């Protein structure tokens, strides 16, 4: 069953299904994913199914939101992930996104992220939304600024205590 969450002019954001495993396997092994997000140990179809069910779908079940598959409306081609996340080591809900490099530079990430920011405020009534990114991820930083987020501070994050930029947006 395909559950649509958001629709924009060009995109559909929906829950992931088992049919998305090959796309997830490809996306999570792109050099950009590995560099900026990290190795999630997804090396075959079974790993991809585990990621889908243990990550995005488990979060949706627990919080009502999570990462959604982003597909082009006209072709139904999967191009990335975008959505809201609740991480144990962040006080606020954050927005996350990753797109296949074949679809960079076409405004899809901004379109999906804008829809998710609006969704955070309108559907979930959030007063504040955050995002984290590596200081070297200039494209991500530009996208976050384009959807109204501002650099708030640097934080040490995760098991590696890596220094990341924390961006935030307050809703009034």
Q: Can you offer a commentary on this structure?
A:
32% of the residues lie in helices and 30% in strands. By secondary structure, it is of the alpha+beta class. α1 (21-27) crosses α3 (45-54). The longest helix has 15 residues, at 108-122. It starts with a strand and ends with a strand.
Write the layout of secondary structure elements.
Blueprint (H helix, E strand, L loop, with lengths): L3 E4 L3 E4 L6 H7 L3 H6 L8 H10 L1 H8 L3 E6 L5 E8 L8 E6 L8 H15 L5 E6 L4 H9 L3 E8 L4 E9 L2
Antiparallel strand pairs: 1-2, 2-3, 3-4, 4-5, 6-8, 7-8
Helix pairs in contact: 1-3, 3-4
Main attributes?
30% strand, alpha+beta, three-stranded antiparallel β-sheet
Summarize the structure.
The protein has six helices and eight strands.
End-to-end span in angstroms? Answer: 36 Å
Q: Cα-atom Rg, whole angstroms? A: 15 Å
Strand and helix order? EEHHHHEEEHEHEE
Helix content: 25-40%
For the sheet with most strands, the description reads: 5 strands, antiparallel
Question: By helix and strand content, what is the structural category?
Answer: alpha+beta
Question: Helical region count?
Answer: 6
Low-pLDDT stretches: none
């Amino acid at each position: 069953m395909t559950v649509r969450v958001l629709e924009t002019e060009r995109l559909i954001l929906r829950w992931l299904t088992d049919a998305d495993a090959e796309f997830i396997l490809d996306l999570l092994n792109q050099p950009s994913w590995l560099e900026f997000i990290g190795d999630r140990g997804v090396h075959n179809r079974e790993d991809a199914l585990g990621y889908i069910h243990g990550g995005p779908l488990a979060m949706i079940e627990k919080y009502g939101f999570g990462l959604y598959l982003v597909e082009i409306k006209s072709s139904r081609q999967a191009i990335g992930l975008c959505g809201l996340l609740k991480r144990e080591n962040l006080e606020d809900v954050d927005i996350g996104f990753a797109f296949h490099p074949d679809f960079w530079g076409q405004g899809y990430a901004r379109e999906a992220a804008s829809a998710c920011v609006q969704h955070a405020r309108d559907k979930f009534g959030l007063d504040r939304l955050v995002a984290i990114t590596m200081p070297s991820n200039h494209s991500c930083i530009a996208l976050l600024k384009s959807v109204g987020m501002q650099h708030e501070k640097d934080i040490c994050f995760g098991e590696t205590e890596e220094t990341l930029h924390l961006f935030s947006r307050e809703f009034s």
